[in-house]
Every structure is written in structure tokens, then in C-alpha cells.
Design a protein that fits this description.
Blueprint: H1 3-7, H2 12-45, H3 50-104, E1 107-113, E2 116-121, H4 140-173, H5 187-204, H6 213-225, H7 230-240, H8 242-253, H9 262-283, H10 288-300, H11 315-322, H12 330-347, H13 377-386, H14 389-395, H15 414-422, H16 439-453, H17 461-467, H18 473-488, H19 492-498, H20 503-512, H21 514-521, H22 546-556, H23 560-580, H24 586-617, H25 622-633, E3 643-644, E4 648-652, E5 661-665, H26 673-692, H27 702-721, H28 725-734, H29 736-747
Antiparallel strand pairs: 1-2, 3-4, 4-5
Helix pairs in contact: 2-3, 3-4, 4-5, 5-7, 6-9, 7-9, 8-11, 11-13, 12-13, 12-14, 13-16, 14-16, 16-18, 16-20, 18-19, 18-22, 20-23, 21-22, 22-24, 23-24, 23-25, 23-26, 24-25, 24-27, 24-29, 25-27, 26-27, 27-29
Amino acid sequence: MDLNALRDGNFSQLSDAITDWEKMTKDLATVKKDAHDHLKAKADRANWAGVNAQVSREFIDKTAEEFTDAHTQADSITNILKDTYGELVGYRNQLNDAISRAQGKNITVIDTGKGSFEVMPSTRPDWASDPSGNKGAADQKDVDATRDEIQRILSKATTSDKTAADALRMLVDQAKYGFSGAHYDNRDEAAKSLADADRMAKILAKDPHKVTNTELASLNKMLAEHKNDPLFAEEFARKVGPKKVLTFWAGIADPYQGTYDPARAAQAKQLQKNLGTTIGLATLSDSDKMQSWEKQMIKLGPDQLGTDDASDPTGYAVMSNLMRFGDYDDQFLNDYGDHLLAYDKKVNGQGINLWVNNANQSDLNYWGAKNDRGRDPMTGFLQALGHNPDASAQFFAQPGGTGATVDKSSELNDHLKYLTEQRVWTSDASFDGNHGYVAGRDALGHALEAATTGYSYDATTAQVTAGGDRRTAAAAGVMEQVAYLYGSSEDGPKLLHDQPELADSLGKMGGAYIDDIDYDLSGVGDYEKDAGTFPAQYEGRANFTQQGAINFLSVLGQNEDSHRAVTAAQNLYTLSSLSTHPPTSDADIEHAHSALTTEAVARGILDHSRVEQVKQTYQDDADAANASLSRSGDWIKLGTGVIVGAGVAAIPLPGSTAAAVFIAPIAAGTAGEALKTFIGHEIDSGLSGDQQDPSEKGQVASAQFYSRGEGQLGKDYQTYVQGNAHAAEVAKRQGWSQDIVNAYNDGSAESSHRGRAPYKG
């Protein structure tokens, strides 16, 4: 900053700008509050269906969030401008005071332009004739001290001005459309983010083998502290550069460099997560520099990095392991995935696998490494999709031109067909891992879960219950493909049995769409479907067709994991439907009848499929068959920890972490007391039945299994009519008991039109 620019600085325009921004921030705070308290709150409470339930509510939610971001950005800009204004005025006063004191000491300060200045002793003509010999000139020490003081003031002012400009520019560039959600209380905070990023980038500029454990700990600490800081993330990524990100992680991750150090391995594990999260946040920026960064990263994908570390891996191998963590830009993930799959198709085959082979000792993954060494880049990429639902829905989007539903292979997404039907998958387990397990297929299941549910595959109960139903027409388009691929395609049952790692994910996906499945089961063929009992919960609901729904359920029933997940979701959805239609009117009673009989059909298909598959699989081992059926019959226990939110319920999976949940739609908008009563009654009844006959565990024959299923349906029926004489009378007169039994037996019928035959291998 030039001396005269600060000395004569007129900051009135900056002051006026601050006043305008303060008013803007205040006005946006009001609009933000109105948007959330009135617009969004009313939309959340509205009992909408069809288009309004999805399009209007989603638009209102996004609008409300945009107002929030607008207020956040305005507040950040105001804070930075105010802080900078105060600092520059302060530095101007300090400069003028220093110059004034210098003049009193006969010192002259001159601006020489382009950021430079000169400090010299003052001279006057009469000093030459001073008889005392005192020329009046300043002491050189005072001249030097004045120069140093002014330099310090100008340097601070320059820093204040530049860092404010950098922060403001990056804030504005973060989003080409809309507003940045980054918030800073003052210029110092924004400047610190950029300075911290620059300091951490210097660590990555080093030879990774010369980086100490202390430096790694410092890097981890700083990345974790700034995990939600967009300016830090972008500055860090840009300063490090794409290739150095890759070579640094390859060097840190390589366990074969020197002596194995447990402390360093622990830091490396955290760095994989923290570095991936930070890079992901950086990709969310719309700035031109980050767009260029992303293109460079993708270009590095197929080439080896030219390093001695980790078997000189390709860019894909390294980046895919970092992107296992974090929220990445949807378009970047799709561009990256398109290029990765195109390259993978060239090198994947039955012979020596390019990624997983004895020569490749890259070991770039520290999370679950026993069964997933991270050598196959497809695994990490699919895990990234599993954490980024919108990107995954885009990656597996239903092709254009598809009819009312997916009913032929040509209507499947090319990526989905390749990954499920064509790609050769190889176990990437370590020496002491499970070599029958393929981590990549499990990751594929996670990606499809995210695409179809709108949630990260490992979303927590709190996230699900607060977020509500996130299904969209695009998500349903992916689900239709999955249902056809595993249900109705010629090799559907074979795919499930050849890919056991996907079974739990398929069950969770089926459970998440049980309302749409029930709707398809409720008609006469594909006609006269019951939209009153099974209304669309979102625009563009999935259409499986009745036979497609039957086929999909029959395949899901063949596997223990998928059977229990979709059965639990079915029962919960039926209970919520009964709660939504209390026995207070004949119309509601009729809806309840439809809900109960449709559940019976679905349960019959699932249970029949389970029994027949167990007979086929364990035909020579009755004890194993009975034990398998017993485990399948324990699905009711999944309901013990169910938490109901807005339009969905989160069902925890036993034996897993708190984050391991699956999502089931509920007919009611929220969990009213009636629904809670239904759920509590059913869970208590189911568990008490198990406790009364513990010997049943491991000794359930198929007849008993069917009897147990029929009994559970009877409990649902009893729960509805109990305590209401009119409902009980109507149900008795109309023969509900027999209707439910017939529906369950119809679903359990062995006739081929009810679904797919058991897989024979």
C-alpha cells in the first residue's frame, strides 16, 4: 500500500458501503426468519399429496435455505468490511501520528510511489550559517526508527487490505449462482483461515517421508478444525495442487517405507479421512481455479504418479481412497466416475487384474483395510457415491426414453449394467482377511442405497428423522432399474446369490419403497390400484408393475438379510397406515382392510420365497434349514429401536453401530400417538411371543414359520379392531380374517406367476 494512499485515505465510501451492507444483512435476517418461520413451517405442516408433496415443498425448502445462505454471506461481508475499515482507519491515524512526530524531529517522509517511501533528515538554508554549529538535522537513529515504524504500519495496512480483498473475492467466487454458506465474524477470522491453509500446504510440499509425526498430528488437527471452512479448503487445495495431494498421500500411506510405526499409522488413518473431507469441501467451490483443479485431477487418473511409494499407483488409485470421506461436488464425482469406468472397461477382465494383483502393494486404505486394502479404485469411488446421494442418483440415472417403467435390459443405465452384470470383481482382502468378501460390491450397494433413498448409506437416526422423505422422481428412476435388474431380469436371482454383499442394501432399498410396492400389489393386475390407501408420498413415484413388484419381493425373500429388512419395513408401514385410518368412519375402515390384505400378500410372497430357498439351499441339513428360518423369523426384533420422523422411520440394525439404520416410509406425516401405540403394541406382542417359547429358536419348521407369519398378521388385525365395537362388527361381517388368510396364502402360493423360483445355483 502506498504511503500517501493510506495517509490521505478517504474511507467514507467504505463506511457508506458498510452502512448499506448492515441494512442488507438486517433485511435478509428478517426475510430469512419469515422464510423459515412462515413459508417453510407452513409447508412442513401442510398435508400435501402428489406434486405439492414433492415439488412445492422441495422448492420452498431450497428457497428458505437460499435465504439463509444469502444472510450468511451478507453478514460475513459486513463483518469483514467493518473490521477492515476499523483497522485501516487505525493504521491511517498511526501513520499520521508517526509522520507528525517525525516532523517535530526535523525528519521528512516522502512517498516515492509503487509502495515505496523515503525517510531523511530535514534541511533548511539558514542552518549552514548557524554559529553554534548545530545544523538542526535529525539524529540518524531517529530517522531509522521512523522508517521502521512507518514500514510496520504500512505492512500491517497492506496485509489488512489484501487479506480482506482475498477473502471477499473467494467468498463471492464460491458460488456462481446463489450464495456461499461460509461465515466469518471478522477479517481476522477469514485471514486466519487462509493463513492456516497456506501453512498446512507447506507441510504437503515436503517429502512425505521427512514429515514428522508431530507435523502429521498438527496437519490432522488443523484439517479437522477447518472441516467446515470453505475458504480454508479451497486455499489449501489450490496451494497444494492436484498431483501433490496424490503423491503426498501415497508416501504417507505406504506401509512398506521403513519400519512400521503404530503412532504414524494412526495419524495416517486420520489423515486419509481429514484430507479427503477437506478436498471434498474444496470441490464445492464454483471458482474458475477450482474448476481447473478438478479437471487436472481427473486427467491424472489413468497415469502412474512417478513415485517410489505404494507401487507407483495411478491417480485413480490414490484419489478414490481419499474420496471415501467427505461431501464432493456432484458434477466432479460424475465426471471422475465416467472417466474411471471408461478406463476400467479397458483393463478389467478375467485374467490378471490391473488393480488387484501380487505386484500391486499400494495399500492406500486405512479404514476396514483387513478386507479392503484400497487397491481397486472402484471401491473408493463407489463409497464416495454412497456419501453423496444426488451425485449417485445422477450417476445411475434412468436413461431417457424409458416407458412407464423399466421392463427390459436396454432401459438400464450403462454404469449400472457394467457394475452389476459385466465387471469382474476381485476380493481385495489382506492376507488374514476374508477372501470370499468383495468390498467393491458392498460399496456398490452403498452407492445404490444413497441414490434411491436420498441419504448417505451410513446416515444416522437423527439425520433421517430430521430430514424426512428424500425420495424424488430421479431416485425412483434408479429404484425401478434395481427392482427390474434383481427381480425381473433373467439373471435376477443369480445376481443376488453371486453378489451376497449387496443383499442387505437391496433389502434396505426394498424397504424404503414398500409403499410404492404395496400400491402396485393393491390392484387387479395393473388396474384399479388403491391410491387412497397407498397415496404417493413424492412426485414421480416408482412404478414396478404388479408382476415386477412380486418378482422383486420374491428375490428379496431368498436372502436372510434382505428378507428381514423389507419385512420389517412392510410391517411398520402397515401399522402407520392403520394409524392414519383410525376406525372412526366406514371409509377409513375400508382403507384399513386394504392395508391389511396387501400386507398379507407381500408377506406371503416374502415368506414363501424364504421357505423355498431354505429348502433348496439346505436340502440335506434340516437343522441348518430350521436355524435359517428361525433367524428370518426374528425380523420383529428390528422394531425395538425404531424412531419415527416426518414421513419416515429409522430402523436400527442390531449388532451394528448407532449409525447403521435403514429407512422405511410411513403413511402418517409424523408419529402421532396412535402410530406410537400401534408400534409399541406390535413390538411388545412379538417379543413376548418369542420369550414364551425360546425352544422355537433354531427349531422352526416351514409350517411353523408360515404359522408365525400368519399369527403376526392376525395381531395387526386385532390391534386395529380392538376396543372398537363398530370396526370389529364390520370386520367380522365382511370376513376380514379369511381375507387376510387368503391373501397370505395367495402370496405364498407355489404357482409360478407369484414370483421367481428359488435359486438352484
